[in-house]
Structure formats: C-alpha cells, structure tokens
Amino acid sequence: MSGTEAHLQRVLSPKERRERNREEMITAILEAARAVMREQGVAALNLHEVARRVGLRTQSLYEYFPGKMALYDAVYRVGIRLYAAGREHLPPITPEPASFWEHARGELEHYMTFAQQNPELYQLVFERPVPGFVPSPESLEVGNQILAHSDQLLSQALAQHHLALGLPPEQARDLFIGMMHGLTALHMANEPELPVGMGRFGSLLPAALSLFQAAWTPAAHTNTQER
Predict the structure, then answer these.
(1) pLDDT for 173
(2) Average pLDDT, the chain
(3) Closest by Cα among 147, 99, 144, 143 to 121
(4) By CB count within 10 A, which of 84, 134, 145, 180 is most buried?
(5) Which string of DSSP letters, residue by residue, matches the chain?
(6) Opening angle at CA 180, ends 95 and 135, nearest 5
(7) Is there a contact between 155 and 169 (Cβ–Cβ < 8 Å)?
(8) 167 pLDDT above the threshold of 60
(9) How far is CA 46 from the centre of its chain?
C-alpha cells in the first residue's frame, strides 16, 4: 500500500467518527422527514414516524433537532439551497439582448421543475403550509441572496438597454415571481404528473414569457408612450 493510500484509509479518531456518524444521522433524519412530508403532507410531519424510520427513539431525535420547528427549518434550508444551486445552471446574461429572455425562460422552467421534482420542498419553501413555522434568519438569508442576485441581473439588463420596464425594478421582479409561482402552483394543483411545458397551465410558460417580452422590450415601451 502506498503512503497516499495509507493516508486515505487512516483510522479516524473517536471525535472524527462521532462527527461523521452525527452528520450521517442528520442526513438520514432529513431524508426521512422529506419522505414523511411527501407521503402524508408537509404540515403532517411526525417526529415519532421520523425517528422510527431512522431507527431512533423519539427522545433521541432531540439530540439532533430540539423540536419539530427546528427540523422544518433544516428541511427548508435543504430546499432553498437546492433551488439556489439549480439557478447557477441557468443561461447567463450577456450583451446580447436575447440572453436576458433566455435566462428568464430558464427561471420559469427551473421553478416548475423544482416543484415537480421536490414537491415537499417546494411547498415548504415557497408556500409556507405549516402554521407557526417561520424560517430562521440563516435560512432566510439564502432566499435574500437569490432576490439580490435577481435584482443584479435586472439592473444589468437595464444598464445594457435590454429592458424598459415602465415600473420600479423591484415591482417588475415581484410581478415576474408572481406569474412564475402562479402558473407553477396551478400546474401542481391540477396536473402535477405532466412534465414542464405540458398541460393546461404548464404549457403557458412560453406565453407568459412572451407577455413580459412584449411589455418590457424598449421598442414596446416606446410605442406605448407614444399612443
């Protein structure tokens, strides 16, 4: 065995083993919690059932999470981070005017795809179905970073004269979010089994993008002002 192999296969210290075991158990608990939420409803998370699925006594679960809301918060962080990671693969905005709309199309499709692939995370992160649950500041910070990045991209497109909004950028951003969430929520409520781009509401993503494009391109805004 080479020195490198010996280093990679070295025996972990007791502290390292405890830390690794704890991390593995936390991962298992989060996966079990997500499974329960998918099967029984997001608001129906049951700590007894989660503990049973990971082979713990319910009391032992509190060694990892002090209560149900703490577990919800950890699952929320999983969801918002997963959503944010997916946004990193959206088409970039370049000096080409069409690039902004390619990015916007990617945003619409990513949101609906995330909801389809992770319905329990989508509901917890974007619909707040659990009475009394408020994400921690740490968890909300990830969402704030997403909004800040969206604002940055919008400012970039405005600076490159790709857009003429006719309303404050923050309101334009929120209008786009409202359309994105509305179509996704209706798709998930009516035809969640159909892929993105199909069904009564899923098929409306291109039309929604066209509405924004028609309203926010500089030429369209100029024509409206001249009427």
Answers:
(1) 96
(2) 91
(3) 143
(4) 180
(5) --HHHHHHTPPPPHHHHHHHHHHHHHHHHHHHHHHHHHHH-GGG--HHHHHHHHT--HHHHTTT-SSHHHHHHHHHHHHHHHHHHHHTTSPPP-SSHHHHHHHHHHHHHHHHHHHHH-HHHHHHHHT--STT----HHHHHHHHHHHHHHHHHHHHHHHTT----SS-HHHHHHHHHHHHHHHHHHHHHH-TTSPTT-STTGGGHHHHHHHHHHHHSHHHHHHHHH-
(6) 105
(7) yes
(8) yes
(9) 23
> Higher confidence at residue 3 or residue 139?
139
Let me know: does 146 contact 84? Beta carbons within 8 Å: yes
